[in-house]
Amino acid sequence: MFDQNQLNSIGFRFVTDSIELNTPYGEELARRPRFYGRSELDALKSEQRNVAALMRAVSERLPEVNSLMRLLMPVKDIRRSIASLELRTLTEVELFEIKRFLLQLELIAPQLDKLGVLLENIRVTAMPKALDIIDPEGLRSPSFYVSDRLSPRLSRIRRERKLVDERMKKGEDTAELVLQRTRLAAEEEDANAEARGELCTRLRPYMDELLQNAASIGRLDLALGKARLAERFGAVLPEVGSDEFRIEGMSNPRIAEALSQKGRSFVPVSLELTPGSVVITGANMGGKSVAIKTLALNAALAMCGWPVFAEEAHLPCLDDMFILSEDREDAMSGLSSFGGEMKAFDSMLRETEKKEAVLVLLDEFARGTNPHEGAALVRAAAKLFNNRSNSYAVIATHFDGVARLAKKHYQVAGLRHADAEALRARVLTGSTDALAEFMDYGLYPVSPDEEPPRDAVTIIRALGVSREFSNLIDI
Amino acid sequence: MLYGLLKGIRTLSVMGMCKNAGKTTVLNSLIGECGARGELLGLTSIGRDGERSDLVTNTKKPEIFVQEGTLIATAETLLKEGDISLEVLDTTGLPTPMGQIVIVRARSAGFVQLGGASITEHQKLLRDSLFGFGAERVIIDGALSRKSLGAPALCDGVILSSGASYDPDIRLTAEDTAYFARLFTLPGYNGPASETRFTAVKAGECSGAEELNPLIPRLKEGAEALVIRGAVTDSTAAALANIGKLLKDTLIVCEDASRLLLKRASFEKLMRFTRGAAVLNETRLIAVTVNPFSAYGTHYDKDEFRERVASALESAGLRIPVLDVKDV
Fold it and tell me: How many domains does chain B have?
């Protein structure tokens, strides 16, 4: 699976940070996304069904969903207190937090029932018996006080103490009275601890149920967050475990946001993969890397049980996924960039060998060496993955002669269809974004014989790079 | 005695200039007076750096004594230092070295140990939370140190507690007391200001910058005010002194008295080459209390101390009641 750097770079973190969650349990689940492997396909499907059900609820019964979310907001993390409960008597503050949690369950459980959404592995249950232990008067007030009812001794000491307090308040302050107050305060502390000890003994049998409720609330919060995210971005649930690997109209919210700040919009990408190598060629600056990152993001989201940013998505159940790009973590670690890339490639080959289905993404593989050998390396990689029926490899390159080895060839159109005269005219007006205006970022299936476009020189001119230099280019 | 001075003050901070300045006596007296009138009080304190080690070395039991019903915002682990019977009302999640801050109600009279938030925003949340739970007045146990002048931004009244433990030299203590009193009585500034670190105000128009240098041309034209956001330290004062000639008609404005972290000498120098100082958030100093008894043995004469402080205040042009802690 991708490392933290890669998750950042492909925009996965951007997505998981965009989700709105209401509980610490849900936040924790989103912070550490679970990659469902092949053996967990059932669990992934079950998560998807939950998200789908909640997506329907979000679109059809928003007021009820909003009420439910408001009830989730005050939920605090009580797992530490529950862990302590196993070992010792809880303090008043810890008991307060458990009581608050129990009170919240009383509200969340019926609201979830009212929503009438069938959810798997999410069961929030009210725990009135546990609440009766912690709140024997049945007042259900949102505060916690060790009740007199829990201990006749505590109750008696408190009554005595009150009498002393009243005498003192009236101005009596004999040494004897002060001493009596101190003694009663100490006795109360002792009786209070005893009462809490008893309370905790009676609460212990409910520990598992409390934890299950906490876990369910976390899963509910996360699934609801995903459903709302899907609603907000128009994301869909992918078909995982499909015979085909086809994603239509993909986008990448992180890149889309960066583009929209420049007044541009993201051009959706569609890809269909087969086992073996698929090659993407195209102009410099034309969006090959964007296509790779967008595929990486959506495949990772799909395998983690998240909605994907696409019109539709079908993919096989993947055991693992790898990406080799300029953003590699070892890029700074002392190995030359070429050396680092080859080492990473080697360990990836070893790791993927025995897997059943892997996605391998190579972005400008072997860019660090001379074009002649570089092209040969990329061709070798394409052949290698063609021989591995477990690998869906996508290779983005601008080297010649690779595409004809590919099972499928996509090309970023780039400036191919641009009107050269019009582009030159626009560049002359000094428009800095002329290039973006004429660049076709669309990704199109093309014949394997189609060579990468030759538009480096056009791009250099469009960028307004030094005339002294560009006039000397001799092709 | 102090109660009569509380008129119109909803949030009061008691600031001690040093340990054993008699702040606790003042707090207890206020709590007693408000309690006797059936007033529901909220209490909290300003978090201090190194509070934990203080508690370890200070073997004394907590000395703040509250009445039944009092609302208290304090650090979770300090609850066991007190002996009230307590009802937990809320857990705030606001962190301190002594655990999160919790809000409790005293269900009996008794002693409490206060440990509050050290960030102004958190202190405001706690104050508002205490009011939210029904407090009619909030009293904040504050402290002065070189790093902080407590939290004038969140209270509308201040009591300053001075004492012989501040310094063996009675004259120095009296003069420094008057100095802090001056800071807490700086006039309010009602003119415009930008959100930048520095704002030069000329004829009601603001020029803002994060540094002083870009504003020099503006200051040369003669600005009526220079608003400084954030701390004003000795080095800020030195930087201002460098362009002192430009500032002779300029009022130096800081956010509130807590931002003035200056030695008295630096402050006095600043006052000489500028038109004076003012604050965006004004506070009211309602009294100065003095404790002639020193924890270190160098006691002052009770009357002499009170008179010296009173006359130092008078020389500074301040008319503030000065009370001996024994008389509050």
Answer: 2
* Residue A214 falls in which region: left (phi positive, over 0), alpha (psi -120 to 50) or beta: alpha
CATH class of residue range A235-465: alpha beta
Tell me which residues of chain B, numbers 72 to 91, contact chain A at a CB-CB cutoff of 8 Å.
Answer: 76, 79-80, 83, 85-91
Chain B residue numbers with beta carbons less than 8 Å from the beta carbon of A195 are none
My answer on whether B238 and B312 are in the same domain is: no
pLDDT digits (tens, 9 = 90+) for A191-209: 999 999 999 999 999 999 9
Q: Provide mean pLDDT across the span B283-293.
A: 93
B49 and B138 share one domain? yes
CA nearest to A402, candidates A382, A416, A427, A421: A382
Kindly identify which residue of chain B lies nearest to residue A97, measuring between CA atoms.
B91
d(CA B185, CA A464): 63
Phi and psi of B277, rounded to 5°?
-125, 155
CB contact under 8 A, A165 and B109: yes
DSSP A236: B
Locate tokens 């707090």: which residue?
B27
Count Cβ atoms within 10 A of the Cβ of residue A252 and give its class: 0-12 exposed, 13-18 middle, 19 or more buried.
buried
ipTM associated with this complex: 0.84
Share of chain A above pLDDT 70, in %: 96
Looking at the structure, do residues B174 and B56 belong to the same domain, yes or no? yes
| Residue-wise pLDDT tens digits, A264-310 | 889 999 999 999 999 999 877 778 889 999 999 999 999 999 999 99
